[in-house]
Design goal:
disordered N terminus, Ferritin, 2 domains, mainly alpha, about 75% helix, 2 strands
Length: about 325
């Protein structure tokens, strides 16, 4: 491994022939990435897919111009040199990562790609002495930064159009179904279901450490249970709710956090201080759940408060009564 790493050249060690070869392979890679973006988005976001199709074609045109000047100066055989062959050179994220990215993040990733390509062409132009090659690299640098501006402008124009509005709505809906809905269900379950055992233990023992351990066990156990339940009960293919592992993580993590929120205060040795902070945090958690329901699930605020805050308060009271009795 160390031998392979040490054999890589740094960018400032490349000659003009190698710089042009690197530019050719980089344009080919970027064209493939944009084509993959387009294919991935075509079914759900056709307007954005069309934008990436155009960007892929432009990268192919850049590659054609680079090959033309390479053959003119160095012949037909283009050495194989890629980004990963150059130490310290910028890299592209694996294309399969777009499966985990929302629409807006994919657009941002494309803008980042164009910006790094622009910086490369500026550096490459400074390393060549041939006027025609320098001019081409400068033109490509200007084209890449122009792509950034056009891509951002196209994205803004797209969002203002009917097709763009539908894509934004669809992306928001997918975000809610995949992350918000299971996360909210987990937060509600973790916050409410752990109230009775934690406060019953607290008032029965008045031992803060024991109460914390019970709360920790209840929260982690509930998080694991909810995470697995969410992940295995729906593969997301028919329902369109997204990858089961994403929903499982959202549900499991938020369930555990919901319980830990009012278990952590019992790390404080003084019982009444810990209990007072825990009770205050319970109502903060419940109001936060009500706000999320109103914000993302369009539940009327009054109904959300009634369902969550009142229900949570009753469970809290039940725990106190059982433990105090």
């Amino acid at each position: 491994m160390f031998q392979v790493l040490s054999s890589r050249k740094h960018f400032d060690e490349l000659d003009e022939k190698e710089i042009l070869a690197l530019a050719i392979s980089a344009e080919e890679d970027d064209a493939r990435i944009y084509a993959t973006y387009a294919e991935r988005l075509r079914a759900d976001y056709p307007a954005t897919a069309a934008m990436f199709d155009r960007m892929a074609e432009e990268e192919h045109e850049h590659r054609r111009r680079l090959i033309e000047i390479f053959r003119k100066r160095f012949g037909k055989v283009i050495p194989l040199i890629r980004r990963e062959h150059v130490a310290g050179f910028y890299t592209r994220n694996p294309v399969w990562l777009i499966e985990n990215l929302p629409l807006e993040r994919i657009r941002e990733e494309a803008a980042r790609m164009e910006k790094t390509a622009h910086d490369f062409y500026i550096a490459a132009a400074q390393r060549t002495s041939d006027p025609e090659t320098r001019k081409l690299l400068g033109d490509l640098a200007a084209a890449e930064i122009g792509h950034v501006n056009r891509a951002r402008g196209a994205a803004e124009a797209l969002e203002e159009s009917d097709a763009g509005a539908r894509e934004v709505d669809l992306a928001h809906r997918q975000f809610v179904l995949t992350w918000v809905q299971p996360g909210l269900a987990g937060l509600m379950d973790g916050s409410v279901s752990t109230l009775a055992p934690i406060f019953a233990t607290a008032f029965a023992t008045q031992d803060t450490w024991t109460t914390f351990l019970v709360g920790l066990a209840a929260s982690v156990g509930a998080g694991i249970s909810m995470g697995f339940t969410e992940a295995v009960h729906d593969d997301g293919v028919i329902s369109g709710r997204g990858a089961p592992w994403k929903r499982g993580i959202a549900s499991g993590v938020m369930t555990a956090l919901g319980g830990l929120g009012h278990a952590l205060p019992y790390l404080i040795p003084d019982f009444w201080t810990a209990t007072g902070i825990a009770v205050a945090l319970v109502f903060v958690e419940l109001w936060a759940i009500a706000w999320i329901q109103n914000r993302y699930m369009q539940t009327p605020m009054l109904r959300a408060v009634f369902q969550v805050v009142l229900g949570g308060a009753l469970v809290l009271a039940a725990g106190v009564l059982i433990g105090g009795g």
